[in-house]
Amino acid sequence: MQLAVWTYEGPPHVGAMRVATAMEGVHYLLHSPQGDTYADLLFTMIERRGKRPPVTYTTFQARDLGKDTSQLFQDAATDIVERFQPDAMLVGASCTAELIQDDPAGLTEKMGLPVPVIPLELPSYQRKEHWGAAETFYQIVRTLADKNRTTAPIDSRRPLANILGPTALGFRHRDDVIEIEKLLGQLGVDVNVIAPLGATAADIARLGEADFNIVLYPETGDLAADYLKRQFGQPAVRTVPIGVGATQDFVREVAELAGVDPEPLLADGLSHMPWWSRSIDSNYLTGKRVFIFGDGTHAVAAARVASEELGFKIVGLGCYNREYAREVRKAAKQYDVEPLITDDHLAVEKAITEAQPELVLGTQMERHIAKRLGIGCAVVSAPVHVQDFPARYSPHMGFEGANVLFDEWVHPLVMGLEEHLLTMFRDDFEFNDHSGPSHLGPGHNAPAENAAQPANDTEAVWSEDAEKELKKIPFFVRGKARRNTETFAAERGVATIELETLYEAKAHYAR
């Protein structure tokens, strides 16, 4: 077991909570000790939901372990039915409660409750959050989908599709769904059910009425789509429409299943990204080194957009959810980089530091890493923080989503170019380090910069001239130049790095 200050995924019962919170009329009874209610904060503080998750905790304490904790669970189940009158109830145990083996499924089965009860067997010590969400959604669909529902003849109606995968606490799920539903409408396809986000038990019952399924978020929707294929013979669209190219592929795949013509929609040119990425301003961005890390689906999609649509060079690609490692490895081979499959944020930080990218596309954790390293960053995947649930409409999918990607990915680099210009004019009377912000007027000088000091007795000291010359190096490679020079000096026993040492190190590493 490893103690960490950050985790990319929570335990599987948090994934189950994301599904339950996304739905309407579904309640989750979680057998758990006191203290496991922390997950509520994810939804009320980070996603800023207006109501608490529909979750009841048994919250047994240490003194309860000598008694019948199973009775606490049964009492809680009875109270839920009387108080909330749910259309369906999920029952399961948190990672700590799993150890006492009270068997929530068996306990509720004996009670004969008047609502459908869906037991969740989520092995907390083998699986994690994304798998927990997928398994929960699959169990809901398997239990509640009406197996007698069939599709009406398509001659008398428009094609029908289900959208599978969006959940509560999902990265841009709310806006992605709006964008894709609008895109389907333009294509002549109606939406039958969106699930789990906003779905009721009655909605799940009529999933079988659709002609096909659209798996927007494979991490959550894949298992359910596979079941619907087996049960109802529904094919699935699995292209994730992130970026212009993928959205075009998505439209064509949907059109083929729906029996409609995609070309009128594709001819409209609904995204600004292709033109903007070819514009003269964006030529300055061509070939920029980018490191990508996130969940498997978003990481692979981001790599395709970065490489094929923005002209970036992929120098790192990885994911934290091992269930999608195969897809990431395949993509990494295409971009000729070593895949990074890990849930250790320190390993990710080490890889980013070694790759020396000019832009990082990642999660909330990579935002922190990039900030420490002085590199631009855009968030493209969960886990995320409150700023990644914007009040404005900001999808990442579809043609409008491609516009959003351009803005969010290019702006960090544009701001970096401004910083580079300030660096170039550092010795100018108005822009030098000792001048205060120009908008404050004269007399507001910046504090004098402290002379370079070694972090410890083993590190070299930089002379004033060498430090000044180092600052002329563009900010996005300055860190690497500093480290190379210090390594060069240490190998030769140089205690003070002079201007000549900097030049010698540069020549040495240029060979």
Oligomer: single chain
Radius of gyration: 27 Å
Tally of separate domains: 4
Distance between the termini: 44 Å
The gross shape turns out to be globular
Question: What structural class results from the helix and strand content?
Answer: alpha/beta
CATH topology description of the largest domain = Rossmann fold
Largest sheet: 5 strands, parallel
Report on this structure.
About 2% of the residues have low confidence. The chain has 511 residues and is α/β, with parallel strands linked by helices. The protein contains 20 helices and 15 strands. β5, α6 and β6 form a beta-alpha-beta unit. The chain folds into 4 domains: 116 residues, 3-Layer(aba) Sandwich (Rossmann fold), CATH 3.40.50.1980; 113 residues, Rossmann fold (3-Layer(aba) Sandwich), CATH 3.40.50; 148 residues, Nitrogenase molybdenum iron protein domain (Rossmann fold); 49 residues, Proto-chlorophyllide reductase 57 kD subunit B (Helicase, Ruva Protein, domain 3, Orthogonal Bundle), CATH 1.10.8. The protein has a 5-stranded parallel sheet with strand order 11-10-9-12-13, with helices on both faces. Strands 2-1-3-4 form a 4-stranded parallel sheet, sandwiched between helices. The chain has a 4-stranded parallel sheet with strand order 6-5-7-8, sandwiched between helices.
Distinctive features:
single chain; 511 residues; alpha/beta; Rossmann fold; 4 domains; five-stranded parallel beta sheet; four-stranded parallel beta sheet; 20 helices; 15 strands; 45% helix; globular
Concise overview:
It is built from 20 helices and 15 strands. With 511 residues, the protein is of the alpha/beta class. It is globular, with a radius of gyration of 27 Å.
